[in-house]
């Protein structure tokens, strides 16, 4: 309903513009040469400054349920758009680096605890590498049960 009123309004504006153009064109024949040249130059300048309507064709259409999405092939992002697109990537990289640093610290702390336990134990560290010690631990733990 609103579209029909808008269409009728647009048609009326177009008719009025055509009537004004016809009336001005009729009167333009009677103007002196210098005024008609100035008008021609102004008309050329106005046409040069007008906004050109850019038409773009959609490269694909995605339909999901009752909604559809048009995607255009080449999105012209300014440097703000590129920066906004790069921020999540930078956050991901910094997050992965932080996780790597924390994991390395945790591994170093675990190894330091094991080394401290080995060095403060009553047995020398070479005893743990001896195959006979493993047999001794198995036999002695079996006797204690």
What is shown here, in short?
The protein is mainly alpha-helical and 145 residues long. It has 5 helices and 2 strands, in the order ααββααα.
Structural class: mainly alpha
Low-confidence stretches: none
The global form is rod-shaped
How would you sum up the major sheet?
2 strands, antiparallel
Q: How many separate helices?
A: 5
Helical content class: over 70%
Please state the oligomeric state of the protein chains shown: single chain
Q: Give the mean pLDDT.
A: 82
| SSE order, one letter for each helix or strand | HHEEHHH
**How many strands in all?**
2
Write the layout of secondary structure elements.
Blueprint: H1 2-28, H2 33-49, E1 60-64, E2 67-71, H3 79-120, H4 125-129, H5 131-143
Antiparallel strand pairs: 1-2
Description:
- The protein is mostly helical.
- Among the domains are: 1-47; 90-131.
- Helices cover 72% and strands 7% of the residues.
- The chain has 5 helices and 2 strands; from the N terminus they run ααββααα.
- Strands 1-2 form a two-stranded antiparallel sheet.
- The longest helix has 42 residues, at 79-120.
- It starts with a helix and ends with a helix.
């Amino acid at each position: 309903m609103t579209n029909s009123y808008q269409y009728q309004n647009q048609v009326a504006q177009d008719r009025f513009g055509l009537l004004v153009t016809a009336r001005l064109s009729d009167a333009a024949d009677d103007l002196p040469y210098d005024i008609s040249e100035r008008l021609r130059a102004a008309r050329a300048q106005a046409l040069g400054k007008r906004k050109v309507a850019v038409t773009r064709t959609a490269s694909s259409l995605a339909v999901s349920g009752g909604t559809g999405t048009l995607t255009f092939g080449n999105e012209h992002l300014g440097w703000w758009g590129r920066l906004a697109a790069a921020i999540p990537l930078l956050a991901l990289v910094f997050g992965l680096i932080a996780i790597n640093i924390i994991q390395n610290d945790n591994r170093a702390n675990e190894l330091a605890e094991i080394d401290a336990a080995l060095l403060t134990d009553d047995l020398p560290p070479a005893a743990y590498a001896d195959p006979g010690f493993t047999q001794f631990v198995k036999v002695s733990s079996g006797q204690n049960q």
